[in-house]
């Protein structure tokens, strides 16, 4: 599980215009740029950050050993998030992302196939 303050992500986005490039894959970036409001972009980026951190924690490796670019969260046909990660094709990954006015949180469960 990971929890992040939306204000922290928004402030980081304002200071570092390349933050989204560091966190998001090309496919995620397309979705990010399709969003119109700063609030929705902040929620999206914070949610993806939390999801990738939660995945790294669930793997027991941490983001330092895994790259944000090797973890991707995209909506499935129903709009629910699906997480895929390079080198983890042999496991089933369950993910949930949520937002409030102040926070984004994600929970990841990894199950052997």
Features:
4 helices; alpha+beta; 5 strands; 113 residues
Please tell me about this protein's structure.
The protein is of the alpha+beta class. It contains 4 helices and 5 strands, in the order βααααββββ. The protein has a 3-stranded antiparallel β-sheet with strand order 1-5-4. A two-stranded antiparallel ribbon has the order 2-3. β2 (71-75) and β3 (81-85) form a beta hairpin. The mean pLDDT is 95.
Strand order, sheet with most strands: 1-5-4
Number of distinct beta strands: 5
Mean pLDDT: 95
Unreliable runs, pLDDT <50, ≥5 residues?
none
Strand fraction equals: 25-35%
Structural class: alpha+beta
Distance between the termini: 21 Å
Helices, by number, come to 4
State Rg: 13 Å
Topology at a glance:
Blueprint: E1 2-5, H1 6-15, H2 19-23, H3 26-34, H4 38-59, E2 71-75, E3 81-85, E4 91-99, E5 103-112
Antiparallel strand pairs: 1-5, 2-3, 4-5
Helix pairs in contact: 1-4
Summarize the model shown.
It is found in: Cytoplasm. 41% of the residues lie in helices and 29% in strands. By secondary structure, the chain is of the alpha+beta class.
């Amino acid at each position: 599980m990971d929890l992040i303050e939306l204000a922290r992500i928004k402030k980081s986005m304002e200071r570092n215009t390349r933050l989204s490039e560091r966190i998001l894959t090309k496919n995620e970036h397309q979705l990010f740029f399709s969003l119109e409001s700063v609030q929705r972009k902040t929620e999206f980026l914070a949610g993806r950050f939390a999801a990738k951190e939660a995945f790294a924690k669930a793997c027991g490796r941490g983001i330092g050993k895994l790259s944000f670019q090797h973890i991707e969260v995209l909506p499935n046909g129903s709009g629910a998030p699906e997480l895929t990660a390079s080198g983890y094709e042999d496991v089933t990954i369950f993910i949930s992302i949520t937002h409030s006015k102040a926070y984004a949180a994600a929970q990841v469960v990894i199950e052997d196939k």
